[in-house]
Amino acid sequence: MLNNVVDFFRNLPPKYCMDCGEEMEEQHECYGNKCTNCLKVKR
Fold it and tell me: InterPro entries in the record, alphabetically (predicted)?
């Protein structure tokens, strides 16, 4: 059963920023919907 959960998260499509449309680098299952550039977060 663990393999099914791993496969689920592995097969999620990439997330895109709601403001600029760029593909986000963070994990796809997270709740955020804006990239670090649009949030103006320093790395």
Answer: YhfH-like
